[in-house]
Amino acid sequence: MGKCEICGKEGEGLSLFWADHKDLGYIALCQDCWRKLYAENLLVGGTGSGGGGCCG
Question: What percent of the chain has pLDDT over 70?
Answer without folding.
Answer: 79
